[in-house]
Amino acid sequence: MKNEEFYIKRSALHFVAQKLLASFKTTFNCSISGIDFILYLASSSLIMFLLSACSWQPSGVAFHTLSESRWEREDTLVIDCRVAHAGTYEVALEVRNEVDYPYRNLSVELSRFLLADSAGSVHTDTLFLELADERGRWRGKGLSSLYLTAFPAGTFQTDSAATFRWRVVQRMNDAVLLGIQAIGIHLSEHPSPSSVDAQKDEQ
Q1: What is the mean pLDDT of residues 38-51?
Q2: Number of domains observed in the structure of the chain
Q3: What's 94's domain CATH number?
Q4: CB 95 within 8 A of CB 151
Q5: Which pLDDT does position 38 carry in this prediction?
Q6: Residues 171 and 113 reside in one and the same domain
Q7: Do 169 and 66 touch, CB atoms closer than 8 A?
Q8: Considering the domain boundaries, does residue 154 fall inside one?
């Protein structure tokens, strides 16, 4: 399947803009390309402004989108993320599910290795993710028919800039799992002790 990579700003921008356009068309039964363009520009400007105003740590996200929201048991999703320099990075697994996903939970096997050394050590975890509570309320943030939920998935260290590869396999009982639209890897740089001390001194 196609492996699509987006950084955090572009991913959030496209996702929200597409949902705004779809909602507008449904509400007003309208398909005017000029209005689409205006809405896209307006939502793009607003989102980019809000994102640039946040004092986030350097971070990035890459998604693998599933065709027709179908995840076959033998399908291994491959997601590559590059880090720009040495440091400690926190990993979050992001799940984008449709409202008709039939379960509360999602079980996946997540593996990570250094792309330049694929024959080297591989770190693997089995994650049990709770997408909805016992009453069926989705835990993630939703727009229209999609919900996005992030789950902590550990940390790792690197001594230099490098590209890491994650492999994700679904471990549910379904031969074809329906309702999962995309899986993403979100990296956030963990601040070093020296930078934390410097921030405290400034305060």
Answers
A1: 46
A2: 2
A3: 2.60.120.260
A4: yes
A5: 52
A6: yes
A7: no
A8: yes
What is the C-alpha to C-alpha distance for residues 37 and 33, in angstroms, rounded to an integer?
Answer: 6
In this prediction, residue 19 has a pLDDT band, given cuts at 50, 70 and 90, of low
| pLDDT computed for residue 28 by the predictor | 47
d(CA 198, CA 203): 9
CA gap 146, 23 in Å, rounded = 12
DSSP state of 69: G
Q: Is 65 strand, coil or helix?
A: strand
Are 111 and 41 in a shared domain? no
**What tens digit of pLDDT does each residue of 49-83 get?**
433 333 333 457 899 999 999 999 999 999 999 99
- Pairing between strand 87-98 and 180-190? antiparallel
Residue ranges of E strands in 17-86: 59-65, 70-72, 77-83
Predicted model pTM: 0.67
Residues 90 and 128 in one domain: yes
CA distance 8 to 10: 6
- In the three-class reduction of DSSP (H, G, I as helix; E, B as strand; rest coil), residue 127 is classed as strand
Which region, left, alpha or beta, applies to residue 141 given φ > 0 means left and ψ of -120 to 50 means alpha? beta
Structure tokens at 156: 């790792």
pLDDT-above-90 percentage for the chain = 57
